[in-house]
Design goal:
This protein is mainly α and 241 residues long. Helix content is 78%, strand content 0%. It contains 14 helices and no strands.
């Protein structure tokens, strides 16, 4: 009875303390803010908070958080901060300032592969493909295993009419990751565009090879239906659909 009585006395206090503490950790933004408040002089803490604000659409707070990182004498830390500021300005429609900051990020740390990628995507999103292309190519040289860069590079090649270069970029994606569905589907699209029997057969083989490991992927099944329809195998196309 004594133990139970003591437990009952402490239980409300424990619950109250739990509720008091939980208010700082209910969301990833609150957790990251709490870490920044507790360790304000640690590099990258404010950057992580800035990305949380960026994801939440609060670009003013993202920029403000990134500016804290400029205190640290570390070129990689400063470069990422300028990248965050640049992308935030881009979201606000301040394109010139965004590009200036993204370029400055590379001046601070020229070997920063993610900085090359982000500058490329900024030009890409603005429709300035010729300016995006050299930065995508430089990013793939700096980080050849980064498939998102290869995928976006290939997409730019396709829009510029450089189909063979696009195909080579997708093949590099598959060399990095044989289960990259996006690369397989892109190659299938290129095969379909050729509109020859050999191309359709090549596309069918690509899809069947990947379906052996990912049998429940609907995008693969749908594309298999398209390919088999063009091969004149209507019943097999219906089965795939």
């Amino acid at each position: 009875y004594a133990v139970a009585s003591v437990a009952l006395l402490f239980l409300p206090a424990i619950i109250g303390q739990s509720w008091f503490t939980a208010k700082w950790y209910n969301t990833s933004l609150l957790k990251t803010q709490r870490v920044a408040d507790c360790f304000p002089n640690e590099p990258r803490v404010w950057e992580k908070l800035g990305w949380c604000y960026y994801q939440a659409g609060d670009y003013d707070k993202a920029i403000e958080s990134a500016q804290h990182e400029l205190r640290f004498d570390n070129r990689s830390v400063q470069s990422i901060a300028y990248q965050l500021m640049g992308l935030s300005h881009l979201k606000r429609g301040q394109n010139d300032e965004a590009l200036r900051l993204l370029h400055h990020a590379l001046e601070v740390d020229p070997d920063n592969d993610i900085g090359l990628y982000r500058l490329a995507t900024a030009y890409d999103d603005l429709g300035r493909l010729d300016e995006a292309l050299p930065y995508y190519e430089a990013a793939t040289q700096a980080a050849p295993l980064h498939n998102p860069t290869l995928y976006r590079l290939a997409a730019v090649y396709r829009r510029l009419g450089r189909t063979s270069d696009a195909r080579a970029a997708y093949e590099k994606q598959l060399a990095n990751n044989p289960y990259d569905v996006s690369a397989v589907l892109a190659l299938v699209e290129l095969d379909i565009e050729l509109d020859t029997r050999d191309a359709y057969l090549a596309a069918e083989l690509r899809l069947l090879n990947l379906l052996g490991d990912l049998p429940n992927d609907p995008s693969l099944r749908i594309n298999l239906g398209v390919v088999r329809y063009h091969l004149g195998r209507i019943d097999q196309a219906i089965d795939a659909y």
